[in-house]
Predict the structure.
Amino acid sequence: MTDPLLRVAGLHGGYGATKVLHGIDFAVDEGGVTTLLGANGAGKTTTLRAISGMIRTTGEIVFAGRPIARLPTEAIAAAGIAHVPDGRGTFSELTVEENLRLGAWRRRDDIRPDLERMFGYFPRLRQRLRQQAGTLSGGEQQMLAIARALLLRPKLLLLDEPSFGLAPLIVRDIFAILRTVIAQEGTSVLVVEQNASLALAIADRAYLLETGRIVLSGPAAEIGRDEAVRRSYLGY
Amino acid sequence: MDGLLHQIFSGIATGGIYAAVALALVMIYQSTHHVNFAQGEMAMFSTFIALTLIQAGLSYWLAFVATVAISFVLGALIQRVLLHPLANAPVLASVGVFIGLMLILNALAGWLFGTTLKTFPSPFGAGPAMGGYVSRHELGSTSVTLLVLISVWAFFRFTRLGLAMRAAAFNPASSRLVGIPVARMLALGWGLAAAIGAVAGMMVAPVVFLDPNMMAGVLLYAFAGALLGGITSPLGAVIGGFLVGIIENLAGAYVVGTELKLAVALVIIVAVLVLKPSGLFGRTVTSRV
């Protein structure tokens, strides 16, 4: 068996004295979509923050064969992990175009072909190029955040609740686009979602997080059929 | 009429100095969310460095360039050593550092260079220019400050580094996620602000004479300019700086007299805060409670 793209083992972490993660183990395979499911406060966002080096952690995080747990956030991004944070992380004072250029900040090559491809996925962004990013709607900001992250040309894309705070119709659009993007870009994805049915629909593999521990893991289809998951997270 | 034009032109000349210091204030404000009270003393200290270099035998422009470079390094060092450890501290801690820095630089300058008024050379000479409306120094210093302001604007607007510095000041968390070394960008921002202040100090020193308190008044006018234009807007701060220079000169000549000129700055500050706290070009910042 080949090594996974990202391997997390015995990960502990939290905010100051508050421990959130109590020894998490999971892996993200190359080329696949992995999802972390869980209720509010289970530690999903914290796990992503730990991978990006935004909080202090103990334990092992190995990305593409290289330990990254001690690296600063900017070096982790440079290593090829793009993170769409909760709240979307928009540079609200800057224009849409500047936001996109920042996504590719680490790159020195011509980004125009990639920009064109992003406009193919998200035509709205092209119309709003000169607009201040803070004035975009929530859905547009989510699209901007995804495009910004993809412009890093990441090996791994971390998505934190892409459905957060969006109307159901917009969520459906975003996930439809996301499915196309993932298929065409070939980027490996780790997506965290409270909306389990959405996440399971695009994922290959799923982990269930409960109060800072992984309690269940398996192929997404199997997890979706699990009696307890259905009752607690899918609501039927 | 000639008198009025003369007052406006020399208002523009002093306004350029205020605009430069106001821009430095806004740059620091955007990353720390506080006014750097030490900005004036940093500029004063830089001017003393320039004077020392000139007295050591360097030509004016060589001393000018060296001072700008030294100030840049010192500014970046101040950020690394004093502000960086406070990244997660409450804002009041930064205010404490700013005030402490102001007092230390003021005292240090007095101790190292003396507290007596010193003349500072102008590379442009003192004679009249443009048919007598302005002095040659006024014309020269306005050109230099304008050149600095335009270069800084172009740097922030058109370069990859400038974009990253703006991003790091606005949104450090997201900047790190796209791979920007935020700590380095903030240090560069302080270096740049200190360098701009140094230019302002060297341009104003031939007019007001050099002593450890040289920049006290200038900082007050610059602050009034930054507030008038909008403390969140670099362009606004620059325009505000020029406006304050003109208002100050006209009010000094025709309304309040030279003794009460400084009060004009305070009147502007109070008026802006009462009537339009976000300034002419600033954003209104609303926050959820």
